[in-house]
Design brief:
- By secondary structure, this protein is an alpha/beta fold.
- The chain has two domains: 1-104 and 281-376, Isopropylmalate Dehydrogenase (3-Layer(aba) Sandwich); 119-265, Isopropylmalate Dehydrogenase (3-Layer(aba) Sandwich), CATH 3.40.718.10.
- It contains twelve helices and 14 strands.
- It has helices spanning 14-30, 45-51, 57-65, 89-99, 122-127, 174-190, 205-218, 231-240, 252-265, 310-322, 327-342, 365-375, and strands at residues 2-10, 35-40, 68-73, 103-109, 137-143, 153-157, 164-168, 194-199, 225-230, 247-250, 273-277, 289-293, 345-346, 361-362.
- Strands 2-1-3-12-11-4-5-10-8-9 form a ten-stranded mixed sheet, sandwiched between helices.
- It is globular.
- The relative contact order is 0.17.
- Bound molecules: 3-isopropylmalic acid (IPM) and magnesium ion (MG).
- Magnesium ion binds next to helix 9.
């Protein structure tokens, strides 16, 4: 098959890591006769420099016309002082909303090769693990296009004029909750059959609504074990016994916070990929999908052949799996990354972490990227 993919390298290390994702995807697709056309677009800081806007209208339009979007990272100190609606991050929010990718899948797991980079003790890792292994493997499904990120917000001055104020609103409709829950339940069905709703139902009305809807939907999934946790407790459980979790489903804001926590316990933010997916529209070949590494633009190391391209490469694998159903090709990429780590290849960010008995080869972006291609 032929796929047309929007490619937004973005800022900082974004373009250099996505370059290796592109090569890996192409190589993995080769055997099956799949070809990829890449439509390069600019969004984020580089778009601000060229057009004054983080996400020009025509960029969104072109991205929507493609079969999927692969993105590097946006942002950097250069654009830090711009007003909120003109910052590079607006490009991300605009792409998420514009493409309608309401479910953000953020897997976090312990890579045995990098195990010593995990800040948790073995006994903590073993605590919640049903097989008693010092390990965890979880998936955060974060609602991505609603809630406080997109709710009504503003500033004002009280009636007497004595004080000013600011507000943001957490508002969710039934359908927004239902559709992301479906994605999470379906994911749980393909994994270990456990789903945990994380909310703040002891305080927030919106959370009580999430919980009611989850309780209703749970009846449709009798084979999935549904559980509920308040977000403060969930933050604690993640570092007390992460092995207890399979799929965590939660709102936009809680998911943002918990996924950063989960990335730290996996030992290396430079390794984590993400997928954001939506509902297939009539007349479209594929559901909308946006794929990006979780790490940021790391401007301090940009252009120095130091960036770790593995998260971007793994994001390419997620694209093949979730957008195009190319499971074999996705696995090929994941196995190639794993074999490169087993062989000792390390970019600086993941070097010297121990956990594997092999001698490490400290390499740059290019060398580890080439090793992945060779393994493919
Ligand atoms: C993320 C990031 C973004 C978010 C920022 C950059 C807008 O933190 O993808 O987790 O808050 O969603
Ligand atoms: Mg975040």
């Amino acid at each position: 098959m032929n796929f047309n993919i929007a490619l937004i390298g973005g800022d900082g290390i974004g373009p250099e890591v996505t370059a290796w994702a592109v090569k890996s995807v192409e190589k993995a697709g080769l055997a099956g006769g799949h070809t990829f056309k890449w439509t390069e677009l600019q969004a984020g800081g580089c778009a601000i420099d060229q057009t004054g806007e983080p996400l020009p209208q025509d960029v969104l339009k072109k991205a929507k016309a493609c079969d999927a979007l692969l993105l590097g990272a946006v942002g950097g100190p250069k654009w830090e002082n711009l007003p909120g609606n003109l910052r590079p991050e607006r490009a991300l929010l605009g792409l998420r909303a514009g493409l309608g990718v309401f479910a953000n899948l953020r897997p976090a797991y312990l890579l045995l090769e990098l195990k010593d980079a995990c800040p948790l003790k073995d006994e903590v890792l073993k605590a919640g693990n049903s097989e008693g292994k010092a390990s965890f493997d979880l998936l955060i499904v974060r609602e991505l296009t609603g809630g406080i990120y997109f709710g009504e917000r503003g500033r004002g001055i009280n009636v007497s004029g004595s004080e000013d104020f600011a507000y943001d609103t957490e508002k969710y409709s039934r359908s927004e909750i239902e559709r992301v829950l479906r994605v999470a339940y379906d994911a749980a069905a393909k994994r270990r059959g456990k789903l945990c709703l994380v909310d703040k139902a002891n305080v927030l009305e919106s959370s009580r609504f999430w919980r009611e809807i989850t309780q209703e939907m749970a009846k449709e999934y009798p084979n999935i074990e549904t559980s509920y946790l308040y977000v403060d407790n969930a933050a604690m459980q993640l570092i007390r016994a992460p092995g207890q979790f399979d799929v965590i489903v939660t709102s936009n804001l809680f998911g943002d916070i918990l996924s950063d926590e989960a990335s730290v316990i996996s030992g290396s933010i430079g390794m984590l990929a993400s997928a954001s997916i939506g509902q297939k529209e009539p007349g479209c070949k594929y559901p909308p999908g946006m794929y990006e590494p979780i790490h940021g633009s790391a401007p301090d190391i940009a252009g120095k052949n130091l960036a770790n391209p593995l998260a971007a490469i793994l994001s390419g694998a997620m694209m093949l799996r979730y957008s195009f159903g190319l499971e074999t090709e996705a696995l090929k990429i994941e196995q190639a990354v794993s074999s490169v780590l087993k062989a000792g290849y390390r970019t600086k960010d993941i070097a010297g972490r121990g956990g594997s008995s092999v001698k490490e080869k400290i390499t740059g972006t290019k060398e580890i990227g080439e090793a992945v291609l060779a393994a493919l």
